[in-house]
Write a structure and sequence with these properties.
- It is a single chain.
- By secondary structure, this protein is of the alpha/beta class.
- It contains five helices and seven strands; from the N terminus they run αβαββββαβαβα.
- The strands form two sheets. A five-stranded parallel β-sheet has the order 2-1-5-6-7, with helices on both faces.
- The chain is globular.
Amino acid sequence: MIENPTREEIGQILKRSKRIAVVGLSDNPERTSHSVSKAMQDQGYEIIPVNPVINSALGVKAVASLEEIEGPVDIVNIFRRSEYLPDLAREFDKIDAKIFWAQLGVLNEEAYSFLKERGYTVIMDRCIKVEHALTK
């Protein structure tokens, strides 16, 4: 069963986080991933686009995979379908990242169990922009 941190804990995570890698970030302003990431960028977060099919988004050069990111990442925010989460969880486990966050409507028990067994904080089926607004 997937159990997210409390809203208060999510608020603390957002307050201490600075770098957000966004998997599936689109360069199309009409896509939810773009508008949510832009809102977070406007709030002062560093956004790292992770998408092999774009060159850049929000004025930042994109990387093709999590493993191409240089330096630590506070949150990996995922805008991909739920069936991609197990592979992304395994990739996440290989980098220096703290929080695995799957956007609203995105959840996967296998990925959740894999990450929790390794001691990671996992948030699924929550919108980072909404949580940020609710926990300011």
